[in-house]
Amino acid sequence: MEVGGDMKDKPNDLTILMATYEGEKFLQSQLASFAEQDTQHIQINVSDDSRSDRTRDALSEQIKDFRNYDLHYSEGPRKGFVENFRALILNCTPQTRYFAFSDQDDIWLPDKTSRSLTWLQEQPSDVPALYCGRTQMIDQDGRDMRRLSPLFSRAPAFKNALVQSIAGGNTMTMNRAAFVLLKRSLVKGTPISHDWWAYIMVTGAGGAIKYDPQPLTLYRQHGDNIVGENSSYAARAARLQMVMDGTWRRWQDVHLKLLADNWEELTPDAQSVTNSFMEARRISPIGRLNWLRQSGVWRQTKFGTASLYIATLAGRL
Questions:
Q1: CA-CA-CA-CA torsion for 89, 91, 97, 98, nearest 10 degrees?
Q2: What's the rounded Cα separation, in Å, for the pair 115 and 166?
Q3: 242 and 264: one domain?
Q4: Which ranges of the chain have pLDDT less than 70?
Q5: Strands 208-220, 107-108: pairing kind
Q6: Handedness of CA 16, 164, 156, 146 (dihedral sign)
Q7: Domain final residue pick, 220, 252, 269
Q8: What is the pLDDT of residues 16-49, one digit of tens each?
Q9: How distant is the alpha carbon of residue 122 from its chain centre?
Q10: What angle (nearest 5°) sits at the alpha carbon of residue 149, between those of residues 152 and 246?
């Protein structure tokens, strides 16, 4: 299903990649926030995992009110949100200059796209560049919960990306070089999440990352969220539990295999860091710590970095 005319490559053109699943309840506010953006010429690619036609019908009806928009709808793979976003990326022909991920139930503040594109336009077009940032929590009715996602103060880097995702996909906008890199890497397999993998690949390839401390996305918290906010103490305890029960190690298995399959995309420094990190997962406890230090990997908080060392000693890295 397509609504709208053909788009040309314009200075501020943008493709929004939105994965949906039974999302008709909140779609109107999400789409309305797209219409409020101060950036024109937006293409929306939707991959819908819904079992019913309600989401598709809602999209078709609501998009009629928006000018300068093209809507491209396709049925999703119905294998979960990660495969849905992967399908969006792999099925997208990169004709626009910029690309953004979107959930189906958030609200974008009016300057979200212009603020991200202003920074991206300052970057060399042939260098992968990714803009991301914090979110502001709202409840299911759109009321401000007076909570923000964590503020990370250390500059984004591959040594951090290897062990931590710092921003949700709903905050991410990237240039074409970053999108093409991401698409090429995802041909080789499926990561744990599309947003974490974007952070890994862009930094691993020597690209630029902008982490904005000012939230531009209102992140809706409700019972149907696939992934909720991660700033509470309960969420922190849950992450530590995932380290100790082996979940985090299995995640690392997935990403390290995918990195190996995309080895030629990494800079020599990123390759060296990855090799040291892999050694830290293989050998005796004391040796593991030495290799972990040599890799230089770190998380944004002292608690998070300490959990790395606990995981290393416990053989759960």
A1: -30
A2: 19
A3: yes
A4: 1-12, 67-68, 223-233
A5: antiparallel
A6: positive
A7: 220
A8: 999 999 989 999 999 999 989 987 788 999 999 9
A9: 21
A10: 80
Total residue count of the chain as it appears in this document: 317
Q: Are 188 and 238 part of one and the same domain?
A: no
| Residue 133 CA to its chain's centroid (Å) | 10
Contact 300, 166 (CB under 8 A): yes
Structure tokens at 219: 């992140």
CA atoms of 151 and 89, how far apart (whole Å)? 28
7 Cβ neighbours under 8 A, 6+ residues apart: 13, 41, 43, 70, 95, 96
For CA atoms 132, 138, 143, 147, the dihedral sign is: negative
Q: Could you list the residue range(s) of the whole structural domain that residue 32 is in?
A: 2-220
What pLDDT was estimated at residue 63? 77
Residues 264, 181 contacting (CB under 8 angstroms): no
pLDDT at 317 (0 to 100): 79
Indicate whether 184 belongs to any domain: yes
Q: 104 and 241 share a domain? A: no
Tell me if 168 sits within 8 A of 228, measured CB to CB.
Answer: no
* Domain stop point among 171, 198, 220: 220
The CA radius of gyration of the chain, in Å to the nearest whole number, is: 19
Read off the pLDDT of residues 41-84 as tens digits, 9 standing for 90 and up: 889 999 999 998 898 888 888 877 776 678 899 999 999 999 99
In a domain, 227, yes or no: no
268 and 161 belong to one structural domain: no
Together in a domain, 63 and 88: yes
Same-domain pairing of 141 and 251: no
Asked whether the beta carbons of 125 and 207 are under 8 A apart, the reply is no
Q: Is 199 exposed, middle or buried (0-12, 13-18, 19+ CB in 10 A)?
A: buried
Strand (E) or helix (H) holding 213: strand 208-220
84 and 211 assigned to the same domain: yes
Domains contained in the chain, number: 2
